[in-house]
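ok trying again, last paste got cut off:
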Amino acid sequence: MDARVNKEMVIADMLQIDPGIAAILMASGMHCVGCPSAQGESLEEAALVHGLDAEELVTSVNQYLEKK
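nice, full thing came through this time. structure:
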């Protein structure tokens, strides 16, 4: 698969690429990926709210996508 994500992407768009991304975000502490407000946030915005490193999340998600 050639899909990749970046920190500017909206979470809802990321989940359309692969719903399995939700599990990675939730395991990182972002338990509200299904919330309406989270659906309109970029990964960077959501990471900031949760005190997470957006670059680390991008790396984790892209590694997951590369393995598919």
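cool. Helices lie at 11-17, 21-27, 36-39, 43-50, 54-67. DSSP finds five helices and no strands in the chain.
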